Model the fold of this input.
Amino acid sequence: MLTCGAILECLQKLDAGTIHAKVIADSARPLHAKIYVADEAATLGSSNFTQNGLARQLEANARFARDRESKRYRELSTIAENFWRSGQDYTDGLKALLGELLRFVTWQEALARACSELLEGDWAQAFISASADLDAMPLWPAQTQGIAQALYVLSRQGSVLVADATGSGKTLLGAHLIRAIRRQMLDSGRMRLDNPVMACPMSVRSSWQRESDGAHVGLDVYSHGVLSRGAGDKFDRLINRLSRTQLLCIDEAHNFLNTASNRSQSLMRHMADNVVIFTATPINRSIRDLLPIIDLLGADNLEDETLARFDKLLRSPSAVRVTDAELEELRREIQKFTVRRTKAMLNALIDRDPPAYKDKMGRPCRYPRHAPHTYALNEPAEDQALAAKISDLAGELHAATYFEKPLRMPPHLVHAGISEEQFLEHRLKIARTLAHYQIMRALRSSRAALLEHILGTIAAAKVYQLTSFDKGSDTGNVVERLNTLSGRLPKCHLSVDLPTWLKDTKAHDAACREDIDVYQRIAALVRQMSDAREQAKVNLIAKKTREADLVIAFDRSPITLAYIQKGLKSLGLEHDVFMATGSKETERSKVMEAFALGSESTAVALCSDSLAEGVNLQQGRVLIHLDMPSVVRIAEQRVGRIDRMDSPHRDIEVWWPDDAAAFALGSDEKFVARFDTVERLLGSNVPLPESLQKGSRTRITAKEMIAETEARSVGTAANDWDALQDAFDPVRQLIDGDSALIQKSIYNEYRTVKATVAARVSVVKAKKPWAFFCLRGGSFQAPRWLLFPDAKSAVVSDLPNIVAEIRTRLDDETESGEFDERAAAVLESFVSLLSSAERTTLPRKKRRALEEMRIVLGKFRVRAGERGDQIALDRYGELLEMLDADGSGLKPDWDEVANLWLEIIRPIWYRRLKARRRKPLLLKDIRKDVIDAENDLWPEISRCFDDVDQLRNSDERISACIIGV
Done:
């Protein structure tokens, strides 16, 4: 890039006739000679004008001065003239060649080239190779693009969250992504012998193993259950592997949102250089779900300002109040780690090149269209009246079962200015809301589900004659819990006056007895209800089996599924009827086999929500919600089993229960369902909505839930509480939508260009000089964007901020400029700043590692001087000088330097990680431990860093730039 001024000058002289060019186009006898004839001397030789050619290599070269060696000068000149006369004119060809190597374009074209470098990922092909297996599925272009985008995020952030829509081929993408990362580690000489580690649900363990084997990448796959056990040989082996693996992969990472659980604590002890997280639902219940995910990705990769602002949240994920500004900042932070393509985006990618998307049977792939329907439950008026009475009775509960643990004001509420009176009022209200929610949710599932909640599994199964139902344990039975709890007051650490029943033993016993009486009266009302609702569900399933070979139905309650299974079997269906829940591995396997792509089975699968994620059931075309999903996330996960890119169906049917008002989902239940545990609500981590405080319960219809789900499915939902974009969204908006800066036709031209051009340069008129660069380098040779607002301001390296800066400088009114001497000087001044600016594109953790390395080595150098250790003093001085390298010339590969330092301090870091914790462990937290371990670290420090690769000059890696002059 620094030679562009000289190239421009050469082009000008070619145009003026000052320079001429010829070529000998004889492939049989090509010209291979280097002769330079000037007025006073002639030179020949084999050197090229590089550092190697001129200084390091053994070369044969000679120079003959005209005044001292006139004969040799004349001979060499004659040879050169003969070669010149033998040639054909190549002036126009050379002009065209120079124009191709350094092409001056409009700013839209330069920006289109930069966008395509990021979004299309052609640069990553060197790391993405097809499997050698003849029967292996080829990668779809969308998967290849996703891998490239994930590699880019890894190069910038050190970890990545892949949150593509369900059914997009995540497992195959993931296996080849892992292969690409391993290949980069191998190429860089950093790869250790240990395989990457994958933690995933048991239901998809075999899928990960199969795809990783097909991609020829060794992957040690462990189920989440191993982490949950907290003991045993498998657990010990896994903990050992987490301490050694360079690459940790986590599937369905939303299962680790409870940071206090054994499996989350175990996983947080990892020492991986890179973390790859897969989940279609990064936010399950609230925005706070992102906090543990950020911890897994690496809190050291957060910016300093974010770490400071969210310190309380990182310490206590159940903190109560988050401002809109903090919420938006957290979204922006996680966005940097995220690759997320919606179903609409993926279908648009398919539209570009439909023949490239085939399933394993050679059929075209595309997400199917949804055909949502509702079905009536035919509740008799008597049943509706009974349901209304049950709801009213539930409102009379003290909810004593939610007051077993001590009543204590959380510290974060004290700091937030919440009074004890407010806390107690909220606590009492939310407990009653929870009790009501549990009752109505169970009733909406089935009469058996509600009796199980009240009297226990065994009693409910006996009432409804479910003799073959084996859940594995007797659950529910709130009556028994109340009998046990009666008279046992919770400890109170509040100074405010409690309700009598929470401070007097006899009153507490009476309250528990009153609750038991309410529950028993509700149970009696349940027994009076008809089986109309359950029979309507059985009838719908039976009807759909006459239209479809495979029907899948979901309900949260296994006992309801058992009741429905009993009803279906009584009809004598020809279809097999399977019931798959978390406790039935054999049945789960049968369902997965019957509903696998290409299956010719005829079956009904009755599934609990344990089968609502991670499994492929795409041969099915009909899905029935037996209960109303309380949140859209559940509906998405369920439908995602058949709503997949490789579905063999153009349309899928989704059936929703149209509950009568007395049974319908309420706004209070929808609110409660957003939270994963009762403890999070009881801890008052969120304020109650005003509607709940007033006691109103707005009913939510099936049509409203369908509309919300469909809007989310196609990515058009506005103001979603869990709205989360990915790292590339600002760049996509430059080419898509109402705010696009680049015409789609221009972008499409550049995304398909395969010709090699050194750089596309654009000059625009500006009030003051500025520059934008897209260049390659660092891990994976991924493209990097950098923008200099002016000659003095700090470089901008964050994509959202770069795009914002671009939008303030470029629009339809922007005028193009000429690339003249002034433009060349401006370009050269900004290019000279690139070398030092590139360090800002390292992952934040690696920048912190370099900062910590400088601090620690500075301490070591002082100590070496104090003890008179000249060898150590010199070594520490050399390394500090390397860290301070700036300006032009070759620089060490900062990514590699940071990796070496992290490897050296790994044992110290791991010792600190072994302790149980809630707060993320940062590099600065172990600084003192590292300084105290100088004697242990010296052998590694003394031998490392000698053979660190050097980065090519920044100007040689620019693929596109725009300069304002």
